[in-house]
Prior knowledge:
Blueprint: H1 14-19, E1 22-25, E2 28-31, H2 41-52, H3 62-80, H4 85-95, E3 98-105, E4 108-115, H5 121-136, E5 141-143, E6 152-154, H6 167-185
Antiparallel strand pairs: 1-2, 3-4, 5-6
Helix pairs in contact: 3-4, 3-5, 4-5
Amino acid sequence: MTVADPRPLTGEPVALDLLNTRWVMDGEPLDLFAGAAGLTRVQGLAVWLESTGLAGDFRADASTLVHLMTAREALARAVADPADESARALVDAVLEHGRIRATLTTEGPGERAEFDDPSWGPAWTAARNYLELLSTAPDRIRKCASETCVLHFHDISRNGTRRWCSMAACGNRAKASRHYARTRER
Length: 186
């Protein structure tokens, strides 16, 4: 039985999607890995693995969950303050659990991730994805501009001016709030 992902924003790069396993709904903080939407912690992990396309490669178990939550904390600190040396050390500590092995495939050169302990795979994959985002467009890693939102996104808009996790949710609330303030002034 497949359980629907209850999060308001999905489909972001794996590193940011991991951060988005925590969100706020109706003023209440929710955590996919801590029983949100009536799911157990491991069920929440299974939902996340499925939504990121990692379910076929990694198991949803307690050990994987602990490592993934470690990576989430490291990434949250690194995204919040890229200059924080201790945050960088935490991300590096996650990255210590895996490596890239160069391979030769029928299509030519390739790469394959390897882990001493496969339960570190999703955490390492998210940390590695964060490095990829930093190397291509660090200025496009954004937190939603809404003061009440904790979600992150990778801005892929043409001119790089996206401000909201979702125009339908946070963006619309901000526009409605500005409109209300303008009409009250009159």
